Amino acid sequence: MKFAVVVFPGSNGDHDSYYAAKHVFGQDAELVWHKDTSLGGADVVILPGGFAHGDYLRTGAIARFSPIMQAVKAFAAAGGPVIGFCNGFQVLLEAGLLPGAMLRNRSLHFRCEHVNVRVEQTDTSFTSRCRAGQVLRIPIAHGEGNYYAEPAVIDALERHRQIVFRYVTPDGDVTDAANPNGSVHNIAGITNDTRNVVGLMPHPERACELAVGSADGRVIFESVINGVGGHLSRTLSTTVAGASVGVLDK
Amino acid sequence: MTSDPISDSVLERHGLTREEYQRILDALGRTPTLTELGIFSVMWSEHCSYKSSRVHLKTLPTTGRRVLQGPGENAGAVDIGDGLAAVFKIESHNHPSFIEPYQGAATGVGGIIRDIFTMGARPIALLNSLRFGRLDDPLVRRTMAGVVAGIGGYGNSIGIPTVGGEIGFDESYAGNPLVNVFCLGLSRADEIIKGTASGEGNAVYYVGAKTGRDGIHGATMASAEFDDKSAEKRPAVQVGDPFMEKLLLEACLEVMKTDALVGIQDMGAAGLTCSTCEMASRGGAGIEIDVSHVPQRETNMTPYEIMLSESQERMLLVVKKGREADVERIFDKWDLHAVHIGQVTTDHLMRVKNRGEVVAEIPTRALTDDAPVYRRPMAEPSYLKEAQRLDVKALGAPLAARDAFVRLLASPEIASKRWVYRQYDHMVRTNTLVLPGMGASVVRVKDTSRALAMSVDGNGRFVYLDPFLGAQLAVAEAARNVACAGGLPIGATNCLNFGNPQRPDIMWQFARAVEGIGAACRALDIPITGGNVSLYNETDGRGVLPTPVIGVVGLIEDADKVVRRAFRQVGDVVVLLGDSYDELGGSEYLTMAHGITRGIPPALHLLGEAALQRVLVDGAAQGIIRSAHDCAEGGVAITIAECCFDTSFGVEVDLASVAGESAAHREVSTLFGESASRAVVSVSPGHVDELLALAAAAGVSAATIGIVGGDRIRMSIDGRRVLDESRAAAEEIWSTALEEYFERTRAIA
User: Fold this and answer.
1) Residue B520: which H helix or E strand, with range?
2) Which of A139, A224, B262, B643 is 20 to 30 A from B532 (CA-CA)?
């Protein structure tokens, strides 16, 4: 199966998403330039982390005007699995594919560290291989990840089981101390009403190999690969040798 | 070109002496135009010309089996196998960071990143070495918070992980912080690109941000001391745009994959001036540009202003004749405007035109190779003899071991820097094998089995007390940190932060420190491949502690065998490698307990240091060593405690007392003395004999001092218990001390 990783000019997690899909999970993967209009027959779309257009305005605010986003919207509307990591989540919000908005972290600082998130829903395209309540240790790296939506929207998200990930303690408890950015209801990630579009602030693509600190993010990739009917060719490897991507390439 | 004679006050504003002006007259054979004078002033500034430091820097060892590029280019490069090169350099942005901490630090990061990708390398790691005043000063906290945010703001956005670094504190840095940034990139060993202009008629291109009036005379500012008027120099600080740099980075690397490029250089200090004349000089060519073609973001800019602007995120390219369209197409893709501003000539002149009219015409050599070189007078500082005298007995009673231990854990110098590094994206690119705070920084090299370890170190107190020895200790510590991770040191870069070189005592410190770096690098077989000198680090006539910072890069053959600081398993045996002496001179303990910087720094035996590093590297490669941590600030007691942090284990050790003159101070000296060439390692019980044999064969002392386990940190000296602390409580103090300075004050505000 094939992953499309959208590359905005200020994307910087594009390489990480591509590397995970291609070399950790052995899938086809392609970097798709934001000015393109076609996703090239991909089965899964990743909107990667970064600062899409510098994000001096609101994060992701300009990215929704990139030509590729029309194709992403059509792909999502047709039920195709789309996931946004970090800046990709911010772009999904700005593009109207997911509800809500991001505020600056309540600490007013950029925060990069491993956090614990609890899987709340296992019937989305990206969490089908998770256990309900499973706690994943995955890094965050953002300055604007303080998720906000009006109370009515939050109520609807809760009612329709659209909150997919919450920040928790290592034991899985929702506490204020476990919330790294001030997100309402400790929300770390949500899905749309058809459950094929998922956005989350943490970076599962950075947590696919024990060598870099955690392999808890693998289950997100494994879920979508399994769901689309792909083969997990190398799911047992923890390190990747002989990868063919140019080390100096994007 | 006709010009009026230049007055003394104009010369002074340009930081040029009468003698230097005479050299200009001789080089040109006429009176310079104001534009030409401006060009000379920035190229002959200390920052660009290294006029005070050059004679000393020439003595450093810069060659070696792995060196692909030594000093003189935008960065150095070493061969790391698999056809790859590590391209790296460290650079300072001290002066701008005092005037405007966020932008000063941010543009420092931007500048060093450009130096790396200019060489054709993709930057994959950033480190930094920072110095600030004491944190109880609110102005210092403001400076530090701004610097940290600026480093993060730039690096995070562009997507290059800030994987580590070090931070020190001393009152002398209060009005003159040090912001040194190290960057490492990867390129194919045979595809390193030079900053060269050659080939008559080849096109000179300008690409990147538009030119404004920001940063004019930044290089001259970085070559002058600060005083209370410095805040008025704020317009000389540039504003960074990491998104623009990200576009430049990707577009330039894409252009470099074509063979359309002759050379490329970033416009850093002295902007368009420096990049044009340096590229032409290196290529043995001339260069001609017309400033009216330079994209400008302000109106009515004069040629003088355009040539001296230090606006950020700009690059100068020389493109092969006939290949212009290929290059323009790539920049177009990235929405960058590449502008043809001139061409390469053969007359060895830098010719600047404005709408066709010549406004400057200078032999390139006069600006570069023939710039003034000074052998400035030197004299041993008058403070030195007195400062080196340390009568421990006269200090009064030492602190109780527990008090000292707890206070050292909480001192900003030693406490965890988590508050800082969690503001940096240290994981992007998924290569970071050792997270910040866990030892030397280590990134894997994808597509290979290898990894690179990096460390930046420098101890201003040691250098203040003995520049020759202190600088050697900086090299040794950086290399030892890399060796602890299992990395074989293969190259180094230096950033030399000193005061006003026109003062003989400062020049003496500088010269002795460079000698020390040279001696240590030769003994440890680590060539210096480049670096940066930052002088005039003074405020109101008071210099900072002389602070050479050394960045060492080490090669780890097997990325699966990286060694980290923290203990790994209960029951593992703790071994102290190296010898301990009664050496409190220049220690963090003396500063913390008695508020003094005195004595002689710890002795360093370079052959012993080399042997220790061999044991660390071999022990890691053979899979014997499970954790390793260098003994530095706070001595062996703090080192052992840090090995317990980020684990759930305690430890119990028994140390041999050092033989001290003062019986009363023997305890603190044993625990907190900072003898060099030591490391605390842990091994599984089954590997103890192998480690001891490895050490014995190398002639390195190795003492089995204890066992990992329990939930307390227990230390004895010659069998007598002197410390017994809860690991969790000790870690809480260590991990929160730094952020309390910032969070507490915000709560009040």
Assistant:
1) helix B504-524
2) B262
